[in-house]
């Protein structure tokens, strides 16, 4: 006697395990990705021969050539800088602050921003500059 094997016409491939693996990989890449922080404006930084790259930046503050202060793509008044920096520093206590001041901005405003950063409890701060070529 001969046996006949019948192939089920409605059989399908189960892709659930494949989808599980894809979603786990997606979550892994999202969690481990580093996101680029931007201040919200383009700043013409002054040149410096001793400029160094900063790796751990938690707070990015920009001062425009019109003496506007930008944090996280939002225009901030000088009175609100300390509160905003305190909030951002609480979210990432390991990172420091970088102040990007346009070369045409007022030095007095930059000093006020530095004071607000220090009063907010951020001990590590730096001023952004471009390397001289």
Description:
The protein is α/β, with parallel strands linked by helices. It has a domain at 47-131: Nucleotidyltransferase, domain 5 (2-Layer Sandwich), CATH 3.30.420. It has helices at residues 16-32, 81-91, 107-119; strands spanning 47-48, 57-63, 69-71, 74-76, 96-101, 125-127, 130-131. The longest helix has 17 residues, at 16-32. The termini are far apart. The mean pLDDT is 80.
Low-confidence stretches: none
Give, in order, the helices and strands. HEEEEHEHEE
Q: Architecture of one domain, according to CATH?
A: 2-Layer Sandwich
Spatial order of strands in the largest sheet: 4-3-2-5-6
Mean pLDDT: 80
What fraction, in percent, of the residue positions are helical? 25-40%
Indicate the overall shape: elongated
The number of helical elements comes to: 3
Estimate the strand proportion: 15-25%
Name some characteristics of this structure.
133 residues, alpha/beta, Nucleotidyltransferase, domain 5, five-stranded mixed beta sheet, two-stranded parallel sheet, elongated
């Amino acid at each position: 006697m001969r046996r006949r094997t019948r192939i089920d016409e409605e059989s399908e491939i189960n892709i659930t395990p494949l989808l599980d693996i894809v979603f786990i990989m997606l979550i892994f890449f999202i969690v481990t990705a580093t996101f680029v922080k931007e201040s919200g404006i383009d700043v013409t930084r002054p040149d410096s021969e001793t400029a160094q790259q900063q790796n751990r930046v938690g707070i990015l503050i920009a001062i425009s050539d019109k003496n506007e202060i930008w944090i996280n793509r939002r225009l901030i008044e000088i009175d609100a800088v300390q509160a905003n920096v305190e909030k951002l520093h609480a979210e990432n206590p390991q990172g420091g602050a970088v102040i990007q001041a346009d070369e045409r901005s007022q030095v007095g405003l930059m000093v006020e921003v530095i004071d607000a950063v220090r009063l907010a409890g951020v001990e590590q701060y730096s001023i952004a500059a471009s390397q001289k070529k």
